[in-house]
Amino acid sequence: MVKGVGLRLFVGYFMSAPLLGNFSCTQKGKDIQEIGSLPESKTISLTLIDSIQIPFLGNPMVQDISPSQQRVVFMDQKVFTEDIFIADFEGNILSTFSKLGDMPDNHGGIRSPVFISGEDSILIYGNRGYLSFDMEGKMLSLVKPQEFTGYSFASFGMGRNFEKYKNKLLYFDQGSRKEDYTQISLYDELQVLNWHHPKTGKKIPFNPLPESSIFKSGKYFFRQAWFPAFSIGDNLIYVVYGIEPIIYAFDVEEPHELKKSIPLNLNDYELFPGLGEYTDDFRKLGLGFEWGKIENIKRIGDYFVLAYFPGYDATDRELQWENKTPEEAIAFRESIPKKYPKRIQVTDLEGNRLLDFAPYHYHPETMLLREGQLWVMAKPNPDVEEDFFKVYRLVLE
């Protein structure tokens, strides 16, 4: 573990109580600070204070981090292999094993990121159920699901992790291969979140879309448009339904009453407006990835930290469908990440924007909050093949 990491990166703006300044953006990609009179002003910043560097060649995907145990779980997935690695905070790889393939303790197909479930133990949620292993790869238990269903949605990397509450785990509903996602009526039936009970194999769907949601407007939205970002804090479940720039706060206890909704003011955000009915015309429907989407949310003290993709502007949404030479297609594709980088926004608990910026050093969508510590996956050097990867710890101060 590298303290201070040789650079102390922060992005900060002035804020005050009461807040008298306005924050706005006048040019795409340019964060402009408009400040009125700010007596008793102070700064807020999201600061990189620590890093872990792990030697590795491959395609590492961090799964979970335990600050108290000083452990990092990551995975390397290839076409026919899937290796799980355990490393410490000094960057030493302590063990590696696979649970994919012809072996008695295989998971049958992984369905979520590996979760550090306790002292020296991990949980793999797979098609066979909930499998617990020690950190050497020895199986401790297998609990079969009470009801097996195939899934339509999955995410295997850092940022889409289980959230623990008491003896259960919160996760997004992964859909069903039996559902007809062309029907607008489906939005009345969706249960967006699940409680998982790994010790019993029970899974409880809950969290229908709120009546005030854009998804209840009678319009059609592309598949996974509601794919949620979620977090638990202060006895509330905070949910952002994919493309919709609103934080919904629900009681963490049943019946999970909606307590409040908090509109967001995101930078140059392109919201998919919905269609009158389903179409297979991708020029109208889009491919999903070109529209704005909120990909992560964390509550830290009196603030929300959100990661989002702003979406292409109207010109580029049209341009992506135009005929291009191979060279033009490559140039267009390479221009998109530079023109529309994923961003982080920090707000107060009322949704007032305090920070909004595009991180250069890390992937904002990978935010992981464990034991009060916020971690992200570092971006690799695009010009040099590195034989290591890094995770960074951030603090809001």
TrEMBL record:
<protein>
    <recommendedName>
        <fullName>6-bladed beta-propeller protein</fullName>
    </recommendedName>
</protein>
